[in-house]
Fold:
Amino acid sequence: MTPQQSRLVAAVRSRFGARSVSTDPDAIAPWLVDWRGRYRGAAPAILSPGSTEEVAAIVALAAEYGVPLVPQGGNTSMVGGATPPADGRALILSTRRLNRLRRVAQDDGLIVAEAGVILQTLHDAAAAVGHRFPLDLGARGSATVGGLASTNAGGVQVLRWGTMRALVLGVEAVLPDGQVHDGLAALKKDNRGYDLDQLLVGAEGTLGIITAATLRIVPAVRARAVGWVGVDSPHAALELLRRAERASGAVESFEIVAGHSLGEVIRHIPDTRSPLAQAFAWHVLIEAVAAGEGADDPQRVLEDLLAGALADGVIGDAVLAASEAQAKAFWRIRHSLSEAERASGPAVQHDISVPVARMPDFMVDDAARVERRFPGTRTAAFGHLGDGNVHFHVRAPAGVDGPAWYAEEAGAITAYVNDLVVAAGGSISAEHGIGQMKVAELARLGPASRIAALRAIKAAIDPQALFNPGKLVPLAGEEAQP
Amino acid sequence: MTPQQSRLVAAVRSRFGARSVSTDPDAIAPWLVDWRGRYRGAAPAILSPGSTEEVAAIVALAAEYGVPLVPQGGNTSMVGGATPPADGRALILSTRRLNRLRRVAQDDGLIVAEAGVILQTLHDAAAAVGHRFPLDLGARGSATVGGLASTNAGGVQVLRWGTMRALVLGVEAVLPDGQVHDGLAALKKDNRGYDLDQLLVGAEGTLGIITAATLRIVPAVRARAVGWVGVDSPHAALELLRRAERASGAVESFEIVAGHSLGEVIRHIPDTRSPLAQAFAWHVLIEAVAAGEGADDPQRVLEDLLAGALADGVIGDAVLAASEAQAKAFWRIRHSLSEAERASGPAVQHDISVPVARMPDFMVDDAARVERRFPGTRTAAFGHLGDGNVHFHVRAPAGVDGPAWYAEEAGAITAYVNDLVVAAGGSISAEHGIGQMKVAELARLGPASRIAALRAIKAAIDPQALFNPGKLVPLAGEEAQP
Structure:
């Protein structure tokens, strides 16, 4: 521990008690590695303030002593965004004790939750008042409100409800000078200059530490219908999506799956089978829901949609889940894709987006380009077609030594894929953020005007570069020193 | 003209032709005064670039020569936001020639419009493809896309569709260093750090000059129903709103009108009459629409809603417009309120918001406080209850000399009202922005952490303070020199 860190730790312990600090290496160890084991950092202490005021006091002291802080919620980042630098110069600031639901106001359609509230807890709190928080993802048992907001998380309901950016009505955050920004009033109209709440959403903890958020909740689902559809191409899938959007606001999920990816699921995941008898090059999982009092029957919405699309030759075949068990079986295929892809062999994964209208071409033509450029590889693209966002995997050629191939080729493959994404007007990070993993590619692909603006904002708000060092747009000297 | 201004004007004329510059005082004069005649500035030239590239070149030259620029669209600001400083050190940069619709893509639900496109033109373009741009306001014949986005404009459809912030899917803007930020791809998911598009929305031209925007369009209205409702209190009106929100997504407008304000309309505006026979303390104008293929019948939505509310004693009486002519007559009352209030005598006007749930108390209790504190005055609050946003007028006592009263009392009244708004957790500028008019009150009421963050961002992005000087959060030395 540096002398500055020691002073900070001692001050926090004396002001806020023993439970606000941990220096036990065994207790700290799990929080130094990201959950996929790709990034390993060092930190001599975890600070765990119990209130916004304590966060503000800690930040003010850290600013005075020049000690960097890494905010951490559930530590479920896919890009090393919550892992401290390897040189141990930063302390972890955990939001685990900021775990109160300050307000559940179903009439106003909102919940005010502290940063450490876990997504599952938020779902339960909304359900208890006949509502739901319309964002869900696999890490729901660990991911926290602060992390979800700081990374602008997505999920399978973005089509209808948007990402966290649309669901966060306001945030409370401690800024690097120790001041508290309070946007929890969540005004529907507020034109007092730059939108600080939106600036903090997706900032990955580099501009402020979110301590609480006002979140939108919506009426609970009263009924749902889930369909599985076979199509010839992503273009046909997009046409089906357009029809769904024109027909009804009830469609909440629209996920595309390649036929060969479905094959991997059936091969590797027990008790799975194809919902359709016939083989198709592409498949779509579609879900419609009814919520609120006067909503359409979702079963009828999907029946009408799919019957029309079948009659017009847009789709090849379709089936509606006849029971909740069957609906779950359809969704299990979708949620097993990552696991099945892993089981099928090594692959370089990408989390990318392009404009929705451009996505079918990307999935066909650009995917073919990748396979030509790296002979023997096979691409797999699946996910949120309606958001213009797919998980784009490039699988190793058959028979290669996986780790060696990855070490040799992954960088070149990712650079090539990212170049195609940029050429298509897309984003090299659709859902997961930049964290540590994509810092270099973001800097390479810019564009320069964007990087310059991000750096200027970072330097203006956090001139000492003490908030989540080394992430997103590290300032000069902010990279971890070995 | 300063030597620097002369160099800039000469360079622009030689590079981009005579029509890109005007130095004719008669041609310039109308653009030096805001449309209400409250702010008067000076500028020796108007620059009118014809493309984003020309804007970028002009900005780069202005940065080199140190010449401030005031971006101007339709010049319809309510707060002097587009009026140049009085000392003439800035030039006006007009977006009038950036008037192309670059793309109308109804299948994607978007239009890409240049900054100088007038709102009415945008409405017409959307209507031509069976769609609509769901934002409307009185200045639709003058207000431009660039100004609407830069001020995060609102209107009477915010309840359902949000302000410009929700309708702007991405912007193209020239930053103060002459670089172009291109966010027009309008990715639904893009987590490459801070959201520059959202930062530029509502920035009032102080961080970038918006040159184009990708805007959301939605299916055209196929049928609408308009109702007029009498209630005893804003609290009852809010309960009606909650019922409407639970019942249906079809309600797009929900406007509250005080009984005495309705009286002013009937007194001052020809051919108006009260829609209800009985007198009520408060009235609500409610509109439901059907759009898209499977939408509910809006007439039935309102019938069910109002019948239930009447049976439960929430409302006192209600009538549905029996014809489009009657619907227009109801709306004419709403749109005549400002004119009727003006005709009824001098008043100090405020554009404020508080959390929606808090608004009824504000309209009753805080309004009474104002009337007690300034004896003889009478408050009038009307507008967008569902957005927590009302136009809050404080009328002069009967018999006073209007201009003298205004000169004497307006400042104290506004400060008192703003203090109440801040105490209620609200915003001193809901719709109109800060411009010149509210700079001092924003600085006074902060909070300090907010002002510090705004200033830091402004200084980081526009270190020479050349973009729309004197507006929003003027930096040191940026105020107009007499």
